[in-house]
Amino acid sequence: MSQLDLLLLVLRVAFGAFVPLCFIAVLVWMERRGAAFFQDRSGPNRAHIFGFRAGGLVQNLADAIKLITKEDIVPDHVKHKFYFVLAPVIVFSIAILSFAAVPFADALILGGKKYLMQTIPTDLGILWFLALAGFAVYGIILAGWSSHSKYGILGGLRAAAQVISYEIPMGFAIISALVVYGTVNLTEIAHYQGQLLFGFIPMWGVVVQPLGAIIFIVAAFAEANRTPFDLAEGESELVAGFHVEYSSMKFGMFFMGEYVAMFTSSAIIVTLYFGGYQIPWFSTEVLVNNARAITVLLMLLMPACAWIFIRWMHKNNRSHYDCPDDHRVREALIYAKIIWGVVAALEIVLFIYLITVSGGAADRILVALLQIATFLVKTTLMCFVYVWVRWTLPRFRYDQLQKLGWQILLPLSLLNIFVTSAVVVALN
Amino acid sequence: MFADGLFLVFAVLAVLGAVGLVLFRHPMNGAMSFVVTLIALAGLYALLSAKLIFALQLIVYAGAIMSLIVFIIMFLNIQPADLPQEETKLLSILGGGIVVLPIGWFLFKIVKSLPMHSVAIMGTDFGGVKEVGLVLFRDWLIPFEIVSILLLVSLVGAVILAGKRGTAK
After folding, report:
1. Which of A105, A298, B18, B160 has the most C-beta neighbours closer than 10 Å?
2. Tens digit of each residue's pLDDT (9 = 90 or more) over A74-114
């Protein structure tokens, strides 16, 4: 194992572990500000450190401190304390592990060797995700059952029944996608989606498998226990469902697990149906061959985007009332300086890259970084869809939920398999 | 060397889980220790580089079937008081052990008498999705379809049994 192998191994594992964790903060922030946006209010924007509120991100830090310093109670009536403690651990670690097979960039070719850009470089791909998705049920069941209270057990029952029944349409939607792609390997699936349909439409899964995409997204919402399918924790009837007896960081684990699961299923949706890391119309080879032109374009685009963003920030980050020495204006000025500093540093790095090492291996690394950025942007947008749906649609009734799963999604996904297979066979 | 260590860990976990399934009194404990066995078996398949079987073991057995069983245990909410009293449990375990012991000893002798054989890893494609699929659908198509019909029959049977109880009420 050479040093390069080791370095890439460490980098990939670090990416797979830390990016979902960082996204917890981003998603909690997005959820709150998104909710506020949909309800026409401001959302959390008061917590600050020395006047820096980072658009409300500091609120997350305050929440984390609150959760960590709360008293950690295991209620007296809990008989199976081992399962009670194990349940949040299962939920959280399964959510992080299921991200491990998602490719975040095209296979990196360095020194004649091919490195799959996944945390675990396996070609099991979607099977790995399915295997771990099945395990997430254990966390919910154990939490509800070991809580040993009526709310807990009812919430656990609902959540488990829902997850088990929506796994079937999800599996069928995946099958019809696999019929099209002809592989379970997620890197190859993303590769397939880099082609062009009729020469100008990117061949994304959502274009060639529209029905499958809808079924998969609905099932993924149900799997993640998110509104409109969150009646496992319907506040008005069950208080908080399966995690009603949990406090402090044990509750925090469920909370973080939910957001990691949301991130992971967004990543899977993006990889299966929205082209994964592919930049539309630019395949990896095109990008590598035109690396210089793209670098110049980036060097021009970055300051323009920074300028627009800073204009927008100055316009919005000010007090609504007349006050002589507005600290929000001062805050925005400092942010503007930081952004210009970052842009300048990136420009210097790109310039050095252009005049010294461009061509060869550095191009491939640049393209991989671009694809990672594309992947993260797409995943963030998909996560926003989750937030969007949560604060727009009301909750389902329980029988409606099961009816949707078994009587609508299941026949539709079966039909989708038949139609897809017929078309694939006819075209071959 | 690393693989040997992993094999030991998985083998010990598999046996311990199975022992736990028999010995634990509470059904939830039994089910969870059986989950440990199934996951350890999946690990053993992975060590044999049977990638597809590894994934299927996790998806079907550890993921789907066991989660249904755990779900039912939760649904019925079985308490220790609902379980039958097993006063002769220790005696039965002892008797069972004595019956099984000669077979185990026999197996041990057979395994020891196996000739040493050099083992090499098969090609990288062994046990992948494509290879297993090709074997299944090219060489074993009719047995495979017959097994699926068997599953379908049991599925229909389960639906009919459940339906009958519904109309009788």
Report:
1. A105
2. 888 888 888 888 888 988 898 888 888 888 887 777 777 77
Rounded to an integer, what distance in angstroms lies between the CA atom of residue A390 and that of residue A380? 15
Can you tell me the distance from the alpha carbon of A375 to that of A379, in angstroms, rounded to the nearest whole number?
6
Residue B97 CA to residue B93 CA, distance in Å, equals: 6
How far does Cα B93 stand from its chain's mean position? 21
What is the torsional sign of CA B116, B117, B121, B122?
Answer: negative
* Structure tokens, A229: 């399918």
Q: Give yes or no for a contact between A149 and A245, defined as CB atoms under 8 angstroms apart.
A: yes
Question: Taking the alpha carbons of A279, A194, A118, A390 in that order, is the dihedral positive or negative?
Answer: positive
User: What pLDDT, in 10s, does the model give residues A207-249?
Assistant: 888 888 999 998 888 887 777 777 766 666 777 777 778 888 8
Distance from A130 to chain B by nearest Cα, in Å? 6
Test mutation, A78, A81, A128, A135, chain B, max B CBs within 10 A: A135
Q: Pick from B51, B54, B63: which is nearest to A134 by CB?
A: B63
Closest residue by Cα to residue A256 from A139, A359, A168, A394:
A139
> CA B73: distance to chain centroid?
18
How far is Cα A81 from Cα B79, in angstroms, rounded to an integer? 15
* Three-state SS at A279: strand
Reduce the DSSP state of residue A52 to 3 states and report it.
Answer: strand
Which long-range contacts does A71-78 make (Cβ < 8 Å, 24+ apart)?
A71/A247, A71/A248, A72/A247, A72/A248, A72/A249, A72/A250, A73/A247, A73/A248, A75/A147, A75/A245, A77/A148, A77/A149, A78/A146, A78/A147, A78/A148, A78/A245
What does the radius of gyration of chain B's CA atoms come to, in whole angstroms?
21
CB contact under 8 A, A141 and B67: yes
- If you compute the radius of gyration of chain A from its CA atoms, what whole number of angstroms results? 23
B16's tokens: 């311990």
Angle at A197 between CA A196 and CA A199, to 5 degrees: 65
